[in-house]
Specification:
The protein is α/β, with parallel strands linked by helices. The protein contains 8 helices and 27 strands. The chain is elongated.
């Protein structure tokens, strides 16, 4: 497969949504719908070593190059036999067979199995010609299996000349037949499959040391604000450390993207333009900014994007994270997130995460939503849809019976958008509708899992 490259992976927003009058408030679902419609998968493919394919999306069908398993083999330790030779076996009248050899995994029989004969056989070893079943060693008086040292086992195996079988077995018992998993030529994995650890194992079984996958989306991150200093720098009066560069870069990497850190841009148009242009020059497929998209006098990002980009400035009917910019800068899609770290992370989870996944070729873009029982009263007087940080766990049935455990949730504590620890403690977002001003303990609420399994 040749390397392919296509630039048009971003479908621009409709002209009436770029720079036109913004709606009073846009719903979260409405914003998600518009963002989802704006992105298509990257069409850059690359051939990578198998372990580097983890989490990536295949762009080729993978057929089996041989039967799996490739030969008839035993599912357990025991004796390879002809089922007809032990059909009448019992504890009272065992069937006695002559042991003609031993077959371990990776070895083959030296001669076919004849009538009245048995091979000692260990799990995974090829079934000898003439055998059609395996008797587990527990149903025999066989020696030298589990519980012996290697030297003792070898000695006993060599000395063993006969074995008594105390129970009959059917034809095919404990045999794994060639091709019962997959037949040669059958497609095992199809283009569009996300490579998980199980797929890595499956590809290794097929001898695929390298595979073709979609390229990771390159996502550039620019933090803005005169108050920001690098994370390793001492904080002076009025200053704070740059959290968003690292939090957003970590989220990008976590969801399969390649982060490009552009650092901090001061609240000056030329600094922000220079930072964004660096992201374009470095091949970003998506630009992310944090800060500067609200309504204040120092929201310079908004000014730059109005002048140099095709932008829609949205007020999302949600808390935290009301302001959001979305459009293009010099042909590259851009999303302007709020500057508050909690708001930035929450809006990334909701809006940027699906875009990154879509660029990477994923089709399942959104978080699993569950219903959970609130363990405490929850107040939502924001007048907006509220995405509170919560801790989800499972609780045994209240009556102590055999019923299903239920999901329960409690808030992480104070929910102000300045409380960074609310994200550190959370494994879920609790989604409270704008119309719901109060939740009583015991009521069901919607939750979006952001970490799995629950803490």
């Amino acid at each position: 497969m040749a390397h392919e490259h296509h630039e048009h992976h971003f479908d621009p927003l409709a002209p009436e949504r770029l720079g036109g009058p913004a709606p009073d408030l846009l719903s979260v679902d409405g914003a998600l719908e518009q963002i989802a419609a704006a992105f298509t998968p990257l069409e850059d493919y690359e051939r990578v070593p198998l372990l580097q394919a983890l989490g990536r999306v295949l762009v080729e069908d993978i057929p089996a190059d041989m039967h799996l398993p490739p030969f008839d083999n035993t599912a357990m330790d025991g004796y390879a036999v002809r089922a007809a030779n032990v059909a009448a076996a019992s504890h009272e009248r065992p069937a006695t067979l002559r042991v003609v050899g031993e077959i371990a995994a990776g070895r083959v029989a030296t001669q076919p199995l004849g009538p009245g004969e048995a091979y000692r056989i260990l799990t995974g070893a090829p079934l000898p010609p003439g055998a059609d079943a395996v008797v587990p060693y527990e149903l025999t008086d066989g020696k030298g299996f589990g519980g012996w040292s290697a030297a003792e086992a070898a000695s006993l195996a060599t000395a063993e000349r006969e074995v008594s079988v105390f129970q009959s077995v059917e034809h095919g018992a404990n045999v794994r037949y060639a091709g019962e998993d997959q037949r040669k030529g059958e497609v095992i994995l199809r283009a569009g499959t996300v490579v998980r650890p199980a797929e890595v194992g499956g590809l290794a079984a097929l001898g695929r040391a390298q595979v073709w996958v979609r390229r990771r989306p390159r996502v550039a991150v620019l933090s803005t604000g005169d108050e920001l200093v690098p994370a390793d720098q001492a904080v002076g009066p009025g200053q704070i450390r740059d959290v968003n560069s690292f939090a957003l870069a970590a989220l990008i990497a976590h969801y399969g993207g390649e982060p490009i850190l552009l650092g901090i841009a001061a609240d000056r148009p030329e600094a922000i333009r220079a930072g964004l242009r660096e992201g374009v020059t470095r091949g970003a497929d998506l630009l992310l900014t944090s800060g500067g998209v609200s309504m204040g006098d120092y929201d310079v990002v908004k000014q730059v994007l109005q002048e140099d980009g095709q932008m829609g400035f949205w007020s999302i009917d949600m808390r935290p994270g009301k302001p959001l910019a979305f459009g293009r800068f010099e042909g590259v899609p851009i999303m302007g997130l709020p500057g508050n770290p909690v708001s930035s992370m929450v809006t990334f989870e909701l809006f940027a995460r699906p875009a990154v996944l879509r660029l990477a070729g994923h089709t399942r873009l959104h978080r699993l939503e569950l219903w959970a029982t609130a363990l405490q009263p929850i107040s939502n007087r924001s007048g907006r849809e509220n995405f509170m940080r919560g801790i989800v766990s499972q609780r045994a049935p209240r009556d102590g019976g055999d019923g299903e455990p239920e999901w329960v949730v409690r808030l992480t504590g104070e929910q102000g958008s300045n409380i960074l620890t609310s994200m550190l403690k959370a494994n879920a977002l609790v989604r409270i509708p704008k119309s719901k001003t109060h939740v009583e303990p015991g009521e069901h609420v919607r939750i979006l899992m952001i970490d799995w399994p629950p803490l």
